[in-house]
TrEMBL record:
GO terms for molecular function: triose-phosphate isomerase activity. Keywords: Cytoplasm, Gluconeogenesis, Glycolysis, Isomerase. It comes from Tepidanaerobacter syntrophicus. Belongs to the triosephosphate isomerase family. One of its GO terms (biological process) is glycolytic process. PROSITE patterns: TIM_1, TIM_2. This is Triosephosphate isomerase. The gene is tpiA.
Amino acid sequence: MSRKPLIAGNWKMNNTRKDTIDFLDNFLPKVRNIASDIVICPPFTNLFTAAEKLANTNVKLGAQNMHWEDNGAFTGEISPLMLKEVPCEYVIIGHSERRQYFAETDETVNKKIKSALKHGLLPIVCVGETLSQREEGITMAWVTSQVEKALKDIPSSEVGKIVFAYEPIWAIGTGKTASSKDAEEVIKAIREKIGELYSKNVAENIRILYGGSVKPDNIKELMNEADIDGALVGGASLDPESFYRICAFNL
Ligand SMILES: O=C[C@H](O)COP(=O)(O)O
């Protein structure tokens, strides 16, 4: 088993064009020798600027969302063709903020994943429970059901291109991190569910990240867990030094 670590920065609705240039001028030289996959997901308006800066570097570009259709009357939306043109390599799908504020459902998440794969984009698919679901004791059932619905009708030949990100909603932007043991327990359950749906081999090779208040001082402990393959980082990815320190967790 050899899963390459992946650290992705989700800037959410932060950073102007100038901020993007300043960040990358500072960040790119620092991470030049890092072997893990590093992905930056800026807002749509900064994708072309970021793509120019990232050309011929070891840092990859991702978008934060996309529509599942190639084009059409969908005011305010961005299609996979547009992301490929930038070019983006990754796209975050089903982030809890999209599910919570923009009415994304397991069904639209599934459509988006299929569309991303069809266009050669690598989906980073987010799943996670609310605090009340955790307190009710239904975390595993909820998260594994999100995974199963996300993967509906996706063939085993394609599933390995997907990256999952387990993000407990109560840990996002709150400073509360799931303990590395709690994160490992859920991520292991996600891997087992993928094993049931496909095969042990597929499950052993798929990358599953943790997200939720990841910082330079907790990344090492998270990455020491057997099933955690990386992190989806929000707030701490906005500062080049702290994001660098997260990417350099194993140096
Ligand atoms: O996509 C990233 C996650 O929502 C985590 O955000 P955070 O690191 O600010 O808690």
